[in-house]
Amino acid sequence: MVDCVPNVYIALRILLTLPVSVASGDRSFSKLKLIKSYLRSTMSQNKLVDLATISIECDKASKLDLRELVVDFAKRKARKIKF
């Protein structure tokens, strides 16, 4: 049968590999709605994208060692301009 209709066979293989639902996309948009409140609408696009990524990937973000991040941040160059 594959020899008779190869295009149909390829189309069926592609169809079987497509996801059944788009729940992950819907979840991402619902998280974005929660993040983008009135106060946050004045943020830059980069900061909004970063917050959305943290919210969507909350299981990975919860595993981060915050103490290590704070120490790394403190070791970096001072951001305050001295006059």
From TrEMBL:
InterPro entries: HATC_C_dom
Signal sequence range: 1-23
Domain HAT C-terminal dimerisation: 3-57
Pfam families (UniProt xref): Dimer_Tnp_hAT
MF terms in GO: protein dimerization activity
Keyword Metal-binding: no
Origin: domain of life: Eukaryota
Keyword terms, alphabetized: Signal
Name under which the protein is recorded: Dimer_Tnp_hAT domain-containing protein
